Amino acid sequence: MSKEKFNEPWFEFAKTWKKTYPPARPSQKNILDYEKFLKEAVKSKKKEIKILLLGSTPELRDLFAKYKNIEVTLVDVNMDMILAMTELMEKKARNEIWIKSSWLTVPVSHNYYDAVFGDYVTGNLPRKKLASLFEKIETILKPGGYFITRFFSYLAPGKVFDFDRFILKMSKKKITDRLINNLWCIGVFCFGGANKNGDKIVGTGRFFQGMKKLALKDKKVSELYQAALKIIPEHKYWSYGHAWADDKKLIEKHFVIEKSAMDDYFPIYKYFSRIYKLKAKT
Considering the entire predicted model, what is its pTM? Predict the structure, then answer.
């Protein structure tokens, strides 16, 4: 998949982010967990703390802006997303450096950062590139530095619920932005497909195909489908997901898993979404 094809959905999400709710965006609990891990990771640091942020998540930037001694380097390949996310910040950004770059090739110094943060960042790369991302993070962290991020692990649809039943149940509810967000966060993430390389695809292609088929027979589903199209980008591919057992093996080649915090915004998310505090091995 070309870089342009993969980034295309994010340009659209930059326009609709205001209508996006947790767990697609970090919840209040997520931010409290991020802050707890941040304090643990840099508790011995009294002077300037250097953090690299993968992406431009406004909630994380608001968290960092609370601290005068934190310098943030923000890395995002999409400048439109950076600008859109900046407008959504509740606090005035302080000590931020913006770099428009791929995370894999960002030109920053080795052994420079106390911590690297991100939110659902691993889903933005195919499986074959995750090792390169982790190696990059290792090189730019100071010895004993931390990678703190929320992971989404793939959960097979058959282990979750029946697709038709889920859509029909959602269609009986009042259509609101939050309902569409819930539709996306549960439906799209749980009903992805797989590409030729075996990566589990988190995308809207298969999901919308199923909705469209049901909409032909049910007026309520048709109304829900049309409302969803206004907020959720209709793309075949959006991000990647992998089984946690496979993720864990790869992570432990580069990091020590010290702690994790369950993401329980939806009951089902406790099965595949957590924030991890990872200590670099080198």
Answer: 0.87
